[in-house]
Each structure stands twice: as structure tokens, then as C-alpha cells.
Write a structure and sequence with these properties.
Strand 3 and strand 4 form a beta hairpin. The chain has 5 helices and 6 strands, in the order ααβαβαβββαβ. The strands form 2 sheets. A 4-stranded parallel sheet has the order 2-5-1-6, with helices on one face. Strands 3-4 form a two-stranded antiparallel sheet. By secondary structure, it is α/β, with parallel strands linked by helices. It is globular. 41% of the residues lie in helices and 18% in strands.
Length: 146
Amino acid sequence: MSDVKAVNDLVLKHKSLKTEISKIIIGQEEAVNFVLLSIFCGGHSLLIGVPGLAKTLLVNTVSDVLGLKFNRIILADEINRTPPKTQAALLEAMQERSVTVSGNHYKLELPFFVLATQNPIEQEGTYPLPEAQLDRFMFSINLEYP
């Protein structure tokens, strides 16, 4: 396949995915663009915003549109409320694309990416994520009211 054809195919796929996602997610075009870009690049994204902005719905919709089982897209919902052991396990999965359970090491099948949601730090019960965890995300995407 020529490079030009590959790029054209990618552009068409991107447009098709955006069209399908926009049937469910209204007014978050920039967030959708960044999520798709991170997926195409093999990265992870952190979706930040107050409750009610459809962060989790966006992740579910992306999963449906891509035809993936939801567990292939790890949703770390309200990641800044999770205990340290959970965050450590997520860090391993994000960095190594593998997990360790009871001393056994398992590679995660591709495609694998993490779309995590986070409520703003100002909200009760939330804590800032450690720098080591923030470094694992390709994008921190702020969702605003449409």
C-alpha cells in the first residue's frame, strides 16, 4: 500500500468515526478529535471535567464505534479517587502493556489503550494524580460545557 493511500484511508476512517461518535456525543468535537488522535497513535488519554459532561459516555461510544469489547479500552473512571494499589496496577498496564497477577506476568492484547476520567481537583474527595501517572497519558483533555 502506498503512503498516500494509507494516509487517505486514515483520513477517511477518522471522518467516519467522528461522524458516528457525533450521533451520540454533541458539542465535544475537540475532545473527540484528541481521543481519536491518541488511539491512532497508540497513546492513552485523560478526560477531565465536572460530572455530567459525558466523559464516560464518550468512552463507551468510542468502544462501540470501534467495534471493540469495552474491556479492550480500559476505563479508569474517576481515576483521582482510586486507591494507590489500583493506580500502581494501572501504571504497569499503561507503560508495559502487561499486568502481573499473583506473580504471573500477562501481556495485554492489542489494541489496548486507557481512557481515564477525572473530576476537577477542586471537587470533594479528589486528589491530584502523581506526576509518574500523568506522564503515561498522551493527552489531558479538558471537557467544557457545550
